[in-house]
Fold this sequence. Notes:
Radius of gyration: 15 Å
Mean pLDDT: 90
Number of strands: 4
Amino acid sequence: MLDIHITEFYNDVARILLTLYRAFPRQISMYVEDISGPDQVDEYGLHSERHLGCFHAFLWLNEEGLIRYGDVERQMAFNHCVLTLDAFRWLGSFDQVEGGAKFIDELEFAVKEGSSNDTERLVKSLLRAQSEHRR
């Protein structure tokens, strides 16, 4: 599968948002390995592609206005990480189409069940809402 990194991106985004929602409104330190899994640096001290993909998912979420953080520790952790107000509202909103379940509950269920298709659908929905909000 050529786009496995896209599937990993959606799963990383979901896990990052779930973690921050559970901690909201506290600012927490988030370790990339807690989202992407254990990492082995190579003989030059460089992280794996998987680790770097997850690291850049954090950066992208910040650039898109869904999370904020204070600083980064050597591509390993994001300190003082918290959801933005918009992300908090969207995650806590009710899905009118799916029978009234909270978006965050649907996302948590999809991640817990390991359903990459449902996770991708839900994250795309959130990103679409973010995009429309920016217009």
